[in-house]
Amino acid sequence: MKKSITLLLTFILTFNIFFVNNSIISKAQTSPTKSAIITANTTYLRSERSTSSSKLKTLTKNNIVTVTGYKGNWLKVKSGTKSGYILSKYVTIMKEQTTTSSVNFRKGPGTSYSVISKLPKGRKIYLISKSGNWSKIYCNGKIGYLSSKYTKGKYRICIDAGHQTVGDTSKEPIAPGSSTLKYKVSYGAVGSYTKIPEYKTNLNASKVLRDILESRDYDVIMIRDINDVKMSNIKRAQFANKNNCDLAIRIHCNFAEESDTKGATIFTPASNNKYISSNAYKSICKQSYNISELINKKLKNKGIKMLGNEIYPTSNLTGFNWSEVPCVLFEMGFISNKTDDYNLNDPAYQKKFMQGVADGIDTYYK
Questions:
Q1: pLDDT at residue number 112
Q2: How do residues 196-214 score in pLDDT, each as one tens digit?
Q3: What is the pLDDT of residue 325?
Q4: Can you give the pTM of this predicted structure?
Q5: Mean per-residue pLDDT for 5-13?
Q6: Residues with Cβ < 8 Å from 239, sequence gap 6 or more?
Q7: Share of residues in the chain with pLDDT > 90 (%)
Q8: Which of 215, 218, 252 is nearest to 236 (CA)?
């Protein structure tokens, strides 16, 4: 066992975790559509996921669109009768909430700003962003602010299926302001027995988790719902940050030279991170570890085999270091091991694994 754990930790530092996710299509429902707001002064709805593709429509700041798909750094959206693609950096996916009492809807984030209208208890609103104790929202065709204590909504979970069809070995900073660089997206591994690339397994499992969470009334957004994307680890973390997520879940598979090494592991941000030491980051570390402990317990209750210390705090993941929300990364098992490789590509096993993950999330939030 000591040899297996040593191989695991060596692999973590050198190969497999450069951070992102993938997999096959679940047979459940597709994600419900979500309203989003344009944040750029001017951008374009395009026919394809390319800035050289034809422009279907000009969109301006505060236009509202409907998100129908998650294509990495592109979103598939509908605006009026037109459907196409828009760069995700120009869009914020609004979070549906309701007012918990009668409340003033103001022009700015403070009681000194004039009142646009008074909203009744139970009014549906859409969160754009938060600033201190104030929420910037969209309601009745207008943008304004409410005190955050008078709003509530579903917990929003971002699922990041690790890797993508083609990796990107150009480099980016491992943390804000750091001179240490890492690959933007590594290629990931390939199942030694199934020959299925990790990015496909990751996406399939991620879609299973999405469907389970949505059936339990969570608000879920995906980093990607196809394999052919191009999105770095920093961009993935920033996507969860800007879209008001409560938790980011990152799905991966592991690989080792020894074919008998097997079992799942959980990674969380390390509080003794040499790259980041802010209080905000340490708060994320504590929440992430608490969620990880609950998920670990539920996975073992489901009969999922765990490896080594089971939960590993780490400072070596770009996606963790750039995150502003609690985050957890799963290595679901070793696709270099025959049992794990076949299990991780079995829909029934994926469902059992992700039910354990969802049970842990339920215990933390509900």
A1: 97
A2: 999 999 999 999 999 999 9
A3: 98
A4: 0.91
A5: 44
A6: 88, 158, 223, 231
A7: 90
A8: 252
Mean pLDDT of 80-87: 98
- 23-32, 60-69, 72-81, 347-356: the lowest-pLDDT one: 23-32
Reading the block at residue 246, the tokens are 């409560």
Domains identified in the chain and CATH numbers: 2-22+162-365 (3.40.630.40), 34-93 (2.30.30.40), 95-153 (2.30.30.40)
Report residue 277's pLDDT band, with 50, 70 and 90 as the boundaries. confident
Nearby residues of 203 by Cβ (< 8 Å), 6 or more positions away: 21, 22, 23, 24, 161, 224, 225, 226, 227
3-state SS, the chain, equals: CHHHHHHHHHHHHHCCCCCCECCCCCCCCCCCCEEEEECCCEEEEECCCCCCCCEEEEEECCCEEEEEEEECCEEEEEECCEEEEEEHHHEEECEEEEECCCEEEECCCCCCCCEEEEECCCCEEEEEEEECCEEEEEECCEEEEEEHHHEEECCEEEEEEECCCCCEEEEEECCCCCCCEEEEECCCCECCCCCCEHHHHHHHHHHHHHHHHHHCCCEEEECECCCCCCCCHHHHHHHHHHCCCCEEEEEEEECCCCCCCCCEEEEEECCCCCCCCCHHHHHHHHHHHHHHHHHHHHHHHCCCCEEEEEEEEECCCHHHHCCCCCEEEEEEEECCCHHHHHHHCCHHHHHHHHHHHHHHHHHHHC
Determine the Cα–Cα distance for residues 329 and 258; give it in Å rounded to an integer.
Answer: 22
Banded model confidence at residue 30, pLDDT cuts 50, 70, 90: low
| Identity of residue 60 | T
Q: What is the largest CA-CA distance in the chain?
A: 67
